[in-house]
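debug: dumping io for the single-chain case to check the tokenizer round-trip. Nothing else runs in this session.
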Amino acid sequence: MLICSRAGTALLVIATGAGCAGGSTSPPGAPQAIAAASSSGAVTSVADRVARLEAAIPRLLAEGDVPGLSIALIEKGQVAWTHAFGFANADTKAPVTERTVFEAASLSKPVVAYVALHLVDAGRLDLDAPLSRYVTTPYVADDPRLAAITARRVLSHTSGLPNGRGPNQPEQIYFPPGERFSYSGEGFLYLQKVIETITGQPLNAIAQQLVFDPFGMVSSSFVWQNRYDSLAAFPHNDAGVPGDRRKPLVALGHASLETTAADYARFITALVRGSGLKTASRSAMFRLQSQVDSTCVVCTSRPAGPKLSTIGWGLGWGLSPVPGGDTLFWHWGDNGNMKAFTATLVRAGRGVVFFTNGANGLGIAPDIAAVALGIEAPAFRWLSYERYNAPSRTVLKDIVARGEPAVHDLLATPDRFTEAELNTLGYRLLGRRRPSDAVAVLRLNAERFPSSPNTHDSLGEAYLRFGDTTSAVKEYRRALELDPSQQNAADVLRRLGRQ
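debug: decoded output
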């Protein structure tokens, strides 16, 4: 199976061929664009940054296999520039425009944070009271630690709740709330339930009242609107193939926001100005509430590692101190084949928002953010998304271009890549409908790491795609011998009648 490693945490990717976002192949040091953007020692003008972005983004989209992008620059707390690049649908060649709607993914969370703080200011929500006080049905059954989950701990990702769970998996608390940072989408769903209980309104209605209408976000919604049928971008997988749009009929506070770059930039400028919040709440939003673990983004099931001094969390936002005494507030979005990023300096009011409709969108994000901001965004080092020009992606392009000779070159130099990198490369080849090349790469991985059940599981899947059921069964059985808990291998063998 394809396992994505993100800052030390294994995450199962359901859509095979989508590829893993994280890895150790990112080149060390800051992106080259940073040097170009800040070689003078001072931030360049908006016009200069716009010129650099207009030149760089088409190249990055092409080299990064990202179909389209929409971007907005913020300067001194005002929207200074918006632009659209590439295609909303790579098959039809329908262009991205400035009206194109994208999935905001986790950029939904700061909007929920704003709504929660607005309720705090109105005296309807206590930031440090148990959320269980506001709902009649316990969110987690039979766990006294539930009383320690507060809005502050949800917004600073110290609730102890997981990032996600399966449809039949009961909710649970993994560590004492407040003990450490662990990124949690489930926490925001709990807070959403509390917000809806307090207000008596669904999340989208209260967001419309407190955020979208006041800030002129005319294209934004947590639920699908019929008008999006002609406006929304299509998601594209790692191979650039468009898929079906998600059409959320029920608001999900952690990930279902649909919006445009211009709309979201209006939200950012409102935060910079302090619109709608009391001074104390705005200050708390951008004040360090928790320090992140340097080795993990989602770390519910393991002890905390060393704290990372360059990255912490406020209320709904990642925070990074930058030279000169300012603070960068930022967030990323990842709905699989839709990626997003935003970052803004609290005091200077200089920022950027951009949305992409490709699985590789965050691979080009460091270069774009560096030019837009004039500084490096430390978030990317922590998130560890694979760069668009990482060696493993270069090899992928070489195999796609040259075929078997390029595979032979890779087989002759197997030590260039880790187990995870070879596994991801194999799945990317499957996604590009090159099963024979994928088999060669994944067979190499299983030979290099014969004691890893996952290498055999992945090779089994490649053999199935290649039509070699006998070899697939052999590999799945080997995976189960090495790890009897390999559910995927057991399920496939049962489906094939080869248990």
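debug: round-trip ok. The chain has 17 helices and 13 strands.
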